[in-house]
Amino acid sequence: MDKILTQEEIDALLSNVSRPDEMDMNLLEGANRFHVYDFKHPDRISKEQIRSLRTIHENFARLSATYLSTFLRTMVDVNLLSIDQVTYSEYTLSLSVPSSIYVLQADGLSGKIILEISPILLLFMVDRLLGGPGETQLEPREITLIEQNVVKSIINRLIEMLNEVWGQVVDFRGSLHSFETDPQFVQIARSSETIVIIFFEVKVKGFVYTMNVGIPYFSLEPILPKLSNQAVIGTTRRKGDEDRTMLRHTLQATRVPVVAQLAKARLTVREFLNFRRDDVIQLPQRVDAELPLLVGGKVKFVAVPGNAGRKKAVRILRVVSPLEEIFHQ
After folding, report:
1. What is the spatial distance between Cα 134 and Cα 127, in angstroms, rounded to a whole number?
2. What's the rounded Cα separation, in Å, for the pair 196 and 114?
3. Per-residue pLDDT reduced to its tens digit, 273-302
4. Which of 196, 220, 248 is the last residue of a domain?
5. In which domain, by residue range, is 277 found?
6. 165: buried, middle or exposed (CB in 10 Å: 19+, 13-18, 0-12)?
7. pTM of the model
8. pLDDT tens-digit map of 19-57
């Protein structure tokens, strides 16, 4: 007959068995140490470098929105939506036919990059540039050669703005290489090569159009160490300091008219018409009175007249107060 366990032996066995809730917690803690990794779509650019790319292209979105609003004479908003890493084949398959694909040659990067703009947005630009109201509800179609030449100045200006914002990191020097309407004829990378896509939305008259920039990974790889927040922010600050220095030097070299107003008087039209030679105009100003000194047409100083060698001169006494400046207007 089997031996019957005592109560002490039963308690000892139960104490060696983990409780169900403790086992679940251990499993959850182990699961949190693992991350899902997609070997088909690897993230080859770090999050910090993605943030730097976002900073660069947010500046591009802001500049392009200001330029398009001014040039097209209507309100245009450009917003950066996302930055994705996909294979080149997936990117080309996602593009519609017909498309409007501008291939750019960037001397500062190895290889070529893509600037893809919605054909409807280009047709809207053509209509506005030719004096039309700007139709937004259009069917997408291929852009003709004449229409390409009409919007070429806008595309070149967008490329210049890309050069400007990328100048914070690398000497970009992008230029227009070619234009295609079918994605199958654009081959800037191997089908399996990773390409970084920066997606923008362009809002015009309540309608939203797409625009994106595609940069192959092998083009970015040599400059990835420069794509850090510290490097981009530091370069931006240096560029800002250079701009302020240039602005200060430009302002310092700017010439402004400085006029010492000796006196002024009011005359009637009859008195003016009756003027004859040797007539004397009596002025209300005393000879030793202070004179207003005008800079750019506005009173800024108070001075007294005098001589400097053989030339007439004025000596500045003080800066006028805001109230005096209003009185002299």
Report:
1. 5
2. 10
3. 888 888 888 887 777 788 888 888 888 898
4. 248
5. 258-327
6. buried
7. 0.59
8. 555 555 555 555 555 555 555 555 678 888 888 889 889
